[in-house]
Amino acid sequence: xxxxxxxxxxxxxxxxxxxxxxxxxxxxxxxxxxxxxxxxxxxxxxxxxxxxxxxxxxxxxxxxxxxxxxxxxxxxxxxxxxxxxxxxxxxxxxxxxxxxxxxxxxxxxxxx
Length: 112
What we know:
The protein is mainly alpha-helical.
């Protein structure tokens, strides 16, 4: 097993143990469904935080992006987004950027 696979396996195991500890703690005062919902909400928030930090880091390290690169970046964000409303916003932004890209191509290729 590669080192990366081993580390991923250890991370999953540790996350599972931590989640079960949280679940047992929440079950002392919440129903099963509410305990699960609390854990899911927490994990979603953490996922969003780490995703955003990763994207910010990528943006800070890179040079100004081309239109194609912006489209790729927003596609990546939309696929990673789990909140439907935010995902919908990303898709609207993608549609707008792709329309703008077509307009730019139209006027740069005809010389008008």
